[in-house]
Amino acid sequence: MEEALLLASSYGYVIDSDIKASVYKEIKNGYVFHLQKFHDSPYLDAQGKEAIEVTITKEGFIKSRTLGFYCKGSRCL
């Protein structure tokens, strides 16, 4: 699991203190994580925390999909 989280962090996905982005489960061939990606560009309308579902296999393949933004604006800093 530690290696899978390290791989996810290289893509900018991290564990958050909010339950929406700090969940995981072990699957047959790897792990599924609910992590967060922080967007801080002032030029984007999508500034804030985005929940991401990340699936990582034991072979090191990574697949992600957005679960939507759960915190927007400067209050997410």
Q: Could you give the topology of this structure?
A:
Elements: H1 2-9, E1 23-27, E2 30-39, E3 48-57, E4 62-72
Antiparallel strand pairs: 1-2, 2-3, 3-4
Question: How does the overall form come out from the CA principal axes?
Answer: elongated
* SS element count, helices: 1
What is the rounded distance between the termini?
Answer: 28 Å
Query: Can you write the helix and strand succession as a string?
Result: HEEEE
β-sheet strand percentage: over 45%
Radius of gyration, in angstroms, nearest whole number: 13 Å
Mean pLDDT: 85
The helix/strand class is mainly beta
Residue share in helix: 10-25%
Widest sheet: strand ordering: 1-2-3-4
> Could you give a short account of the major beta sheet?
4 strands, antiparallel
Number of strands: 4
Provide tags for this entry.
1 helix; mainly beta; four-stranded antiparallel β-sheet; single chain; elongated
Walk me through what this model shows.
It is a single chain. The protein has one domain. 10% of the residues lie in helices and 47% in strands. The chain has one helix and four strands, in the order αββββ. The protein has one helix spanning 2-9, and strands spanning 23-27, 30-39, 48-57, 62-72. The chain has a four-stranded antiparallel sheet. Strand 2 (30-39) and strand 3 form a beta hairpin.
Q: What's the short story on this structure?
A:
This protein has 77 residues and is mainly beta.
